[in-house]
Structures are given as structure tokens and as C-alpha cells.
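Thread amino acids onto this structure.
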């Protein structure tokens, strides 16, 4: 057989294969399928991928996907994770421009920061039913997340984790099915003006409300135990916030550059304040701190750095008093604005502690003088009543005489 005939036969075979007449005869397919040699695995952790992309099937036995394993890989189009995988690390699939689908089992419990961030073609993820922990921006800038949003229900919630609220507007009430506000959830939202956080929420993640420049009021329930790094950073119009009485941690930069914030009451559940927690709060005047606080940052005078109008309010011989003296910050003992007050029937009077602290109010006789949540007293009939403000377990009293 001459060379011309051999070349002709090969040409015809390839042509027939391309149009589907002959089966594959060692002509490389356009789509690649991963083999076990494509993966570097150490102690159950997938640490590197060296395959050519296409449809990637991670081998059984892998328990975790290390951070950045597939990051910026434009060749992979789909990924199947085995039942053995329980954790997906930070930026594992970040900016995989041609990744369209990810299939995982209920065994996956945690998904790290930026895990699928900016996967521009990602439209299918299944299943997320077993996931308990999701970090910030895990699915941001993906068609999958865009599809989850809607005008009628702007919240995207996965197993109690609120992962997106960037389309929320006005007065936002977070559903009581949420237990965690994930990092970056409301980042850059310019439309929300207030947010109510229900009793179900335990933690507010890093940068959860960062750059929400029109947010004015935060109504926080007493269930919240932690406020993450930079959670309210650059909320430049934030004026009103009442911290949870269960709060155990305020991380660095949590309220950085909240320029309109004037008053903060640190709950006695908190024992320390992290560095730079309230840096650049230039309008902050009243900071009330209990004697349970025994540490204010570890860098020196940085927790309230660049707060030029600040005065600390607390109890005698407390840690915060010595901290204030050491750092030349004004300190005042907590007192009630008045201990005796005479009112006419029908008259109202607003009673405060000198620190403007958020406290609880109670009247000894509501039929004579009642008091509301904010310390507003209403004189009802002639007689005397004692109004009690309770803060950090200590009572401050004012006798009201109604004539």
C-alpha cells in the first residue's frame, strides 16, 4: 500500500470519527476528565491539582480541599466532590472563569472565604444541605447567587446562614430563621437605613455591614455573642446602636470610621475590647464601661484611637478608670441626672444617666408616674414614685413628686 493510500485512510477515519460514524480511535477529546494522577493529596487534604481541566472528579478519600487549590483555573468546567469531603478552603475555586457546576454531598460542613468568588459561569451548586459554616463572599459574583436574589425576598439564607442581603432597602428586618450573619452579607448596601437583628442570631461576621453608608440604626437582640472584624466599618451615618447583653467579643476595626456615633454602652458580658475597635469615631463622646472589662486592646491607646471628644464613664477603682488616667482620657463616675424631681399631672420628663448609657427603667408606682424604655417619665396623678435605672447590676434612683 503506497503512502498516498495510507494518508487517505487516516484522513477518512478522522473525518468519519468527527461526524460520529466511527468510534473514538485515540483522537484526543476536547473535554478532559481528571484522573487520580492529576491530584496531590496529603493526609486526606487535596493540596494541589495538576490536571488539564474539563470535568474534574475529586478522588474518594479526600476530606478537605485546601485553600486556593483551583484558584484562577480557567480550564475546569465542572467539579464533583466525593462523600468524604467535609471542608472547602478559602479561595479554593476563586475566579475559575469557566466553572459551571459543582456537585457535593451533604457531608460538606464548611465553605471558606471567597471559595467560589467571581466564578462567572457558575450556575449550579448541589447540595448545600449539610453545610453549617459559610464564610464571607463564598459565592459572591456568581450567576448562582444572582439567581437566588429576588425583589420579593432579598435575603439569601443557607441553613441559618444569611449570606447575602445586598438588595435590601429601607428598614430591614432579618428573619428569625437566621443564626449567623455571614461576613460581607450587606457589604456596600447604600439603600438600607436600619436593621433589626432577631434573638436567633448569635454572631455577626467580618465586614458584614462594611460600607453601608446610609445605615443609621441597628437594633441588636441580646442573643448576639460576637461582632466580627470590621463588621460596621465605614458606616459613616450610624448613630444608634444598642449592643447585646450577651456580647463576648468586639473584634478589631468593628466600628472603624463610624463618624456619627456619639454614645456606646459596653455590656458587662464583655471582658476586653480589641485594638482599633472604635478607631476614627470622631463624634464619640459617651462610652460607658463596666468593671467587668479588664483589657482594652493590646497595642496601647488604640481601641479608641482618633476619638478626640471621648469621655469614659464607669465605677470608682475600675480598670477603665485607671486606663483612662494612664492614657489621659477624661473619666467620670456614673450618676443619675437627678435624684429628685417635681412634676405636674400630665407633664413629662426625660431622665438619663450622665453617661447617656442604655439601661433598664422601672417605676415603683406606674399609676403615679410611669417610665418607658428610654427613660421618659409621665406624671399621672398626685403622689410619689421612685424611678430606678439599672445598669451593670447597680441601681440609680430618682424620686418623682407629682403635684
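Threaded sequence (403 positions):
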Amino acid at each position: 500500500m503506497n503512502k498516498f493510500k495510507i494518508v487517505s485512510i487516516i484522513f477518512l477515519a478522522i473525518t468519519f470519527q468527527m461526524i460520529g460514524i466511527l468510534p473514538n480511535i485515540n483522537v484526543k477529546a476536547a473535554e478532559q476528565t481528571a484522573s487520580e494522577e492529576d491530584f496531590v493529596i496529603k493526609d486526606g487534604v487535596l493540596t494541589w491539582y495538576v490536571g488539564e481541566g474539563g470535568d474534574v472528579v475529586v478522588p474518594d478519600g479526600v476530606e478537605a480541599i485546601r485553600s486556593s487549590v483551583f484558584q484562577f483555573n480557567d480550564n475546569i468546567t465542572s467539579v464533583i466532590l466525593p462523600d468524604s469531603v467535609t471542608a472547602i478552603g478559602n479561595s479554593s475555586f476563586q475566579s475559575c472563569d469557566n466553572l459551571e457546576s459543582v456537585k457535593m454531598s451533604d457531608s460538606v460542613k464548611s465553605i471558606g472565604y471567597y471559595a467560589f468568588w467571581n466564578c462567572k459561569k457558575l450556575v449550579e451548586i448541589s447540595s448545600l444541605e449539610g453545610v453549617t459554616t459559610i464564610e464571607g463572599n463564598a459565592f459572591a459574583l456568581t450567576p448562582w447567587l444572582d439567581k437566588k436574589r429576588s425583589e420579593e425576598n432579598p435575603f439569601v439564607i443557607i441553613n441559618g446562614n444569611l449570606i447575602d442581603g445586598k438588595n435590601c432597602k429601607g428598614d430591614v428586618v432579618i428573619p428569625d430563621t437566621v443564626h449567623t450573619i455571614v461576613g460581607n452579607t450587606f457589604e456596600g448596601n447604600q439603600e438600607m437605613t436600619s436593621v433589626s437583628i432577631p434573638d436567633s442570631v448569635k454572631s455577626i461576621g467580618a465586614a458584614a455591614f462594611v460600607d453601608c453608608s446610609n445605615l443609621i440604626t441597628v437594633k441588636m437582640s441580646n442573643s448576639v455573642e460576637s461582632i466580627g472584624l470590621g463588621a460596621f466599618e465605614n458606616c459613616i451615618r450610624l448613630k444608634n446602636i444598642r449592643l447585646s447583653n450577651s456580647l463576648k467579643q468586639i473584634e478589631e476595626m468593628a466600628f472603624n470610621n463610624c463618624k456619627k456615633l456619639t454614645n456606646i454602652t459596653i455590656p458587662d458580658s464583655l471582658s476586653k475590647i480589641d485594638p482599633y475597635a472604635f478607631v476614627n469615631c470622631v463624634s464619640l463622646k459617651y462610652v460607658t464601661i463596666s468593671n467587668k472589662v479588664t483589657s482594652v486592646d493590646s497595642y496601647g491607646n488604640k481601641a479608641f484611637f482618633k476619638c478626640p471628644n471621648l469621655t469614659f464613664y464607669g465605677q470608682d477603682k475600675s480598670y477603665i478608670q485607671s486606663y483612662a488616667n494612664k492614657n489621659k482620657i477624661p473619666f467620670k463616675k456614673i450618676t443619675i441626672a437627678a435624684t429628685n424631681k417635681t412634676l405636674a399631672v400630665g407633664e413629662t420628663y426625660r431622665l438619663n444617666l450622665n453617661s447617656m448609657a442604655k439601661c433598664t427603667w422601672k417605676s415603683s408606682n406606674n399609676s403615679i408616674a410611669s417610665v418607658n424604655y428610654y427613660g421618659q417619665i409621665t406624671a399621672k396623678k398626685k403622689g410619689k414614685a421612685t424611678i430606678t435605672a439599672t445598669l451593670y447590676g447597680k441601681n440609680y434612683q430618682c424620686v418623682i413628686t407629682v403635684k
